[in-house]
Specification:
Layout (H helix, E strand, L loop, with lengths): L10 H74 L7 H13 L9 H9 L8 H37 L9 H5 L8 H9 L1 H41 L1
């Protein structure tokens, strides 16, 4: 009968081989995690750069909108004061200019938000590590909607109320002829402007425009503050790297 004797196995060698396998696995996992982390950071920086560029442009557009509405409010308020005053009316050119500002001019603010909307809809918000920035971006939509809604409200008033009202009175004594024809017509009459300015409906429209422009400026100021905060947080995140 043949006796089979097993080969002696060095336990230390076996342990070393097992340890080498474990270390190799850990190193491979660590390398994968390192590369994934680098890819995430690169993705974050690209997103941050896009957001910074977009919100800088948006901030400029908000500033322009605030200035425009400020001029419009002042012009509308000036015409309202003239309407309530007992002083002689200014010239036809100035009156027509103020009527255009108060009764015809309107604008609608549209923020360029392609990078923002792509970020929020794609799930890439998870790449941004700064919690404060994520919260600020999440709140941007609401502040923007408030400003756009108020502008749309004034825009509707102008288009649906003010302009039709004014068009129904253009035949009276050459009112608004300077703006429409580029010249003072022979039949342009200060008395016709006096009649228009003393009309309570016209005065109510002016007051509505003044108040509406003031509200829009407050909403746009809040929007600008939100945009400035996002820009600061984005730049801080870029500095952290």
């Amino acid at each position: 009968m043949e006796l089979i004797i097993g080969r002696h196995v060095d336990p230390f060698k076996l342990a070393a081989e097992g340890l080498a396998i474990v270390v190799g696995i850990l190193l491979a996992l660590g390398a994968d995690a390192w590369w994934e982390r680098r890819a995430d950071i690169a993705r974050e920086r690209a997103l941050l750069a896009d957001l910074e560029a977009e919100f800088i442009v948006t901030g400029r557009e908000i500033t322009e909108a605030i200035n425009w509405h400020g001029d419009n409010e002042r012009g509308s308020r000036r015409l309202y004061q003239i309407a309530l005053s007992e002083q002689p009316l200014p010239g036809v050119i100035q009156l027509d200019s103020l009527i255009r500002i108060a009764m015809v001019d309107a604008r609608s603010f549209n923020a360029g938000d392609g990078a923002y909307r792509a970020l929020m809809s794609s799930g890439d918000l998870r790449f941004l590590r700064d919690d404060s920035l994520r919260y600020a971006l999440a709140g941007w939509e609401g502040v923007l909607a408030d400003a756009i809604e108020d502008e749309a409200w004034v825009f509707r008033d102008v288009q649906q109320e003010f302009v039709p009202y004014l068009m129904g009175r253009l035949h009276l004594g050459g009112i608004y002829a300077v703006q429409l024809e580029g010249e003072i017509l022979e039949h342009s009459s200060i008395r016709a402007y006096e009649t228009l300015l003393r009309d309570l409906r016209f005065q109510n429209y002016l007051l509505t425009k003044v108040n509406g422009e003031a509200v829009i400026q407050r909403e746009l100021s809040d929007l600008q503050a939100a945009a400035d905060q996002i820009i600061r947080l984005v730049r801080k995140a870029l500095e952290v790297g």
